[in-house]
Amino acid sequence: MATLLLIVIYIAFIGLGIPDSLFGAAWPAIYAELNLPVSWANFVTMIISGGTIVSSLLSARLINRFGTAAVTAVSTAMTALALFGFSVSGSMLWLCLSAVPLGLGAGAIDTALNNYVALHYKATHMNFLHCFYGIGVSMSPFLMSLALSGGSWRGGYRSVFWFQLGIAVLTAVTLPLWKKAGHAAPDAQQAAARTDSLFSLIRRPKVRRACMVFFGSCALEYTCGVWGSTFLVRVKGVSADTAALLITFYYVGIALGRFLSGVLASKVTSDRLVKAGQCAVAAAVFLLLLPLPAPVSAAGLFLTGLGNGPVFPNMLHLTPQYFGKEASQSVMGIQMAASYVGILLAPAVFGVIAQYAGASLFPLYLLLFYGVMAAGSLLLKRALRRE
Fold first, then answer.
1. Smallest Cα–Cα separation from 22: which of 244, 258, 221?
2. What are phi and psi of 7, to 5 degrees?
3. I want to staple 373 with a disulfide (CB 3.0 to 4.6 A). Which of 145, 216, 310, 318 is the partner?
4. CA 243 to CA 248: how far, in whole Å?
5. In 3D, which of 54, 9, 63 has the Cα closest to residue 329?
6. Residue 201 contacts by C-beta under 8 Å, 6 or more apart in sequence?
7. Within a 13 Å sphere around the CA of 43, how many CA atoms are in the beta-carbon half?
8. Does residue 197 come out as left (phi exceeding 0), alpha (psi in the -120 to 50 range) or beta?
9. pLDDT digit string (tens) for 139-152?
10. pLDDT band for position 192 (cuts 50, 70, 90)
11. Residue 331, class by beta-carbon neighbours within 10 Å (0-12 exposed, 13-18 middle, 19+ buried)?
């Protein structure tokens, strides 16, 4: 029963990933059709990220009241509704309105399922969980590229809506499965976890340094996802549909990196997996900095996803080890908040940079956040060695 439930959770995480890569792949076609400034993508991405932060902060109360299963089912349905809204949008206002349920639903799914898997399954499953997220984010830009080759970004959103709707129905009809597994109600371990004050935790140097890693990793990941296609179109001179296809390799890299991390988790420590991933990101950013053809840049984006993909799930797995099991839930909440701040701010700031200084600064911008992530890891290691 636990294995069957885990499969449902994996599929739900595909649904979490599906919307995340779609907007960045479609934006070059959207702003051209609707005659919008390129930087206006910021409004949509910031609304999505803001909704994610709000729902993440409220998710503990919602889960305690309704249970993980119900929160997951309702939130997945909200994201499906949002995708349909994007598919019929004819103005910036409708894009922004559709972004609201997308952000609210995504944040609740992310927090609920990450906590659930951390409590009830092995570390390997955390990596595989985020690998399935990578499948979702890889699938949607591919479908969007097919739709753009036919001349319609709306068709891409409509196709992905049907996939998401199917996942929402699956999470709804399998609600009894959670009860049979004995985990439909709030988890007793979670309820018993110590809740430290926010300020007392933030004052700890280790917590701040761990947050640097999460902030840098997620800022880099989402900047690539939102602006990678625009970089390929404006700097490398490829068409919008080709860029949407090439950015798919970036998301394939994320999925592959997390899959390999899950396979190796029983033999290689999470520390080493994080370090190896960061080395791969350094090589990827170097490739993007070079004035080389679009296929090489696509390879650089793939390598970025391959290296950065394992950082997030393995850092989550290391949280109890770094901070103790009693404090891990509270620290994990702060780390997730730091991640969402990076997701909220980094793509938005680059939108302004692309509008006024040019998309050619994309690789240097990624290098900045790689530096934040690498510095956070180095400082965290030094603090742990001193202990």
1. 244
2. -60, -45
3. 216
4. 9
5. 63
6. 207, 327, 330, 331, 334
7. 14
8. beta
9. 888 888 888 887 78
10. very low
11. buried
CA distance readout (Å), 19 to 159, 164, 167, 284 = 12, 9, 13, 25
Whether this prediction's pTM lies above 0.90 is answered by no
For residue 331, the model assigns a pLDDT of: 76
| 334, two tokens | 């702060």
Measured in whole angstroms, how far is the alpha carbon of residue 129 from the centre of its chain?
12
Q: What percent of the chain has pLDDT over 70?
A: 92
For residues 375 and 378, what is the distance between their CA atoms, to the nearest angstrom?
A: 5
Please report the sign of the dihedral spanned by the C-alpha atoms of residue 123, residue 128, residue 131, residue 132. negative
Alpha helices in 182-237 (DSSP H): 188-192, 198-202, 205-234
Question: Are the beta carbons of 211 and 9 closer than 8 angstroms?
Answer: no
Q: Amino acid identity of 311? A: V
Three-state SS at 157: helix
Taking the C-alpha atoms of residue 65 and residue 60, their distance in angstroms, rounded to an integer, is: 9
Distance of alpha carbon 234 from its chain centroid, rounded? Answer: 25
Residues in CB range of 203: below 8 A, 6 or more apart: none
Residues in the chain: 387
Q: What is the DSSP letter of 90?
A: -
Question: How far from the centroid of its chain's Cα atoms is residue 296's Cα?
Answer: 24
**Burial (Cβ within 10 Å: 0-12, 13-18, ≥19) of residue 117:** buried
Tell me the residue ranges of DSSP E strands in the chain. none
